[in-house]
Write a structure and sequence with these properties.
15% strand; alpha/beta; 6-stranded mixed beta sheet; 434 residues
């Protein structure tokens, strides 16, 4: 199988951090993460009053890029795609900096335009979520992209020149905030939103969030709720939760924020500015809820590289299952399909309430992945399957559905089947919100 794979490195030179992610990819566009590296650069903080990035400030970035190139070489990477976003893109001497970094690191670096950044973020979200209509927000260090999609197709986007790092510098006092500063940033963001009429055409749609601000808010909420499934992707934040964060975090001193369980110390200073941007956009577009996406810009760059003509898949779940089966399941698809037929025949004998289509989908996913635990230990495969599924990279399922699949796939016949119908009803009627 390795001969069919192409190993690709994606380097994202952002305004806050620089990341390298190495993927194994299939000819059909499937992928699996092999390695990830991160360096906190805070490039937005290095922009001068004249809007320039000086070479001397870039000299700390060059060793990082060289190290990333060496890592790619050690891992046998065949292609590298490197892109620079807002901090470098918006610099007055952006072309000079790109040429300098490319020459010094021996990596060809492209400037990712605001439109491209929004589009790549959309590709990352749509190929990891089975949703038809919605918004995407990507809050970076130096820019914020908002995108509207309908019918799983890109419609509109805008890249705003403000992010969590540069607004923190402009509006806060060393990471501390008062009510007046919060209102000023809210007014500044709203003043830019009103310039785009299409932002008011999607009332009630979900807002899918990318970037460290959203991931941090999700982790904070999970810690606060003692949430039992520590997955970021697909985690939902309600309007009430977002409002509660707005009441608490700006009023919490910077030094106290560093101690919050679930919040990285390196993000304690910029979490409030990112939150204010997010809160303002969320209420302006009148979103129904916020959903965190575990895939975004880098995966979008990868989709665009692998399948430029048709980068959007019809079903995130089907796409996800195909790549998991390709990489992690050592059983023939024909055999799994046969088991699914038998399982559906057995299931049809039970008269159960609930959503029949969802139940059949859960059975299908469970059958396709019920062998994953045998990769760890054949004789304890059920236990390992349950853990793997609850922590798996399956896309297109809610957290509730992930848990249901884990329970179904790991069910052991050794416990005898007298209570089987009752247990199936339990699976089917598990609360819809977890």
């Amino acid at each position: 199988m390795r001969d069919e794979l192409c190993r690709i490195g994606i380097i994202d030179i952002g305004s806050n951090s620089i990341r390298l992610v190495i993927y194994d990819t299939t000819p059909e566009g499937g992928f699996k993460i092999i390695k990830e590296c991160k360096y906190s650069a805070r490039l937005s903080e290095k922009i001068t009053k004249e809007g320039r990035l000086e070479r001397k400030d870039m000299d700390t970035v060059i060793p990082v890029l060289r190290q990333f190139r060496e890592i790619c070489s050690a891992f046998g990477v065949e292609k590298i795609r490197a892109g620079a976003t807002a901090a470098i893109r918006n610099a007055a001497n952006s072309a000079e900096i790109i040429e300098y970094l490319s020459s010094a690191s021996s990596i060809t670096i492209e400037i990712i335009t605001g439109y491209q950044e929004a589009y790549f973020g959309f590709l990352g979200v749509i190929n990891a979520s089975d949703v038809q209509d919605g918004f995407v927000i990507d809050i970076g260090g130096g820019s914020t992209e908002v995108t509207l999609f309908r019918g799983r197709r890109y419609q509109h986007s805008i890249s705003f020149p403000f992010g969590a790092v540069n607004t923190n510098l402009l509006f806060s006092h060393n990471g501390n905030w008062n009510a007046e500063q919060v209102k000023k940033l809210q007014a500044y963001v709203t003043g830019r939103l009103v310039e785009h009429d299409w932002l008011g055409t999607g009332e009630g749609l979900p807002l899918y969030g990318l970037g460290g601000t959203l991931r941090s808010l999700g982790k904070l909420d999970q810690k606060n709720r003692d949430y039992s499934l520590p997955n970021s992707h697909g985690y939902t934040l309600s309007g009430e939760t977002i409002n509660r964060f707005m009441e608490v975090l700006p009023a919490t001193p910077f030094e106290k924020r560093k101690e919050l369980d679930g919040l990285s110390k390196s993000r304690a200073d910029i979490i409030v500015s990112g939150l204010i941007i997010f809160h303002t956009v969320y209420h302006y577009i009148k979103a129904s809820q916020a959903v965190i996406s575990g895939e975004g810009l880098r995966e979008g760059m990868l989709h665009d590289l692998l399948r430029p003509e048709q980068p959007v898949c019809d079903s995130a779940l089907a796409f996800s299952l195909d790549r998991i089966i390709r990489f992690d399941i050592h059983t023939s698809k024909q055999h799994l399909d046969h088991i699914n037929k038998l399982a559906r025949r057995l299931f049809s004998a039970f008269e159960l309430g609930g959503d029949r289509a969802e139940q059949e989908m859960l059975i299908y996913v469970s059958v396709m992945l019920h062998r994953t635990g045998s990769n760890i230990n054949y004789y304890q495969s059920k236990r390992h399957t349950r853990y793997w599924l609850m922590n798996s990279p399956i896309r297109g399922l809610s957290h509730r559905q992930l848990i249901l699949c884990a329970l179904i796939a790991s069910y052991s016949t050794k416990s005898r089947s007298r209570n089987c119908p009752r247990r199936i009803r339990t699976f089917c009627w598990l609360p819809t919100k977890i």
